[in-house]
Amino acid sequence: MDKLIAKDLLSIGAVFFRPNEPFTWASGIKSPVYCDNRLTLTAPKVRNDVETSLAKVVKENYPEAEVLMGTSTAGIAHAAITAHLLDMPMGYVRSGNKDHGRQNRIEGKLEKGQKVVVIEDLISTGGSVIDVVDALREAGADVLGVASIFTYGMQKGIDRLADANVKNISLTNFDCIAEVAAQEGYIEKEDIERLIKFRNNPSDESWIGK
Hints:
single chain; alpha/beta; six-stranded mixed β-sheet; two-stranded antiparallel ribbon; 38% helix; 22% strand
């Protein structure tokens, strides 16, 4: 599954490697990779692979799940489609409370004690998805874990998830996509070492121009 999803994401440019002309993140960090999993929604075959794989992850790893909750905004569509495939209820969690109406942060019906799986598109340092899990726990949900499309596997993210007692299962990961990208000719094989060096320490720019 991880290689299938890796090929899919690369084929539509949802994950795009550019080690010789790095992108600049909002934080100022130089990155050899650009990731936009929203592109999967406009590619029917890839979308089908992603959503059926997410459904499989939920069914196999969280068999007790009663509700799917998407992260706002990128996880909402994926949660909706996956919930449809599994015939389950879904909702989503805003980044903050609305400033009007009922001022909800959690949209959709959620009963205290319900077993929830969070659907996320991308995990890097883990901060945003942990924030969503915290909001659900505060509302009384029993959060079983997270199902995500892609994870960088950054140590900071791994540590944060562990400290917050949050389980995550991703369809594919940075190492797998880098390997497939080299096999498929998107990058040179020798670029893999540079990419992994970035993944291990994003603030260290010594991989640039190698």
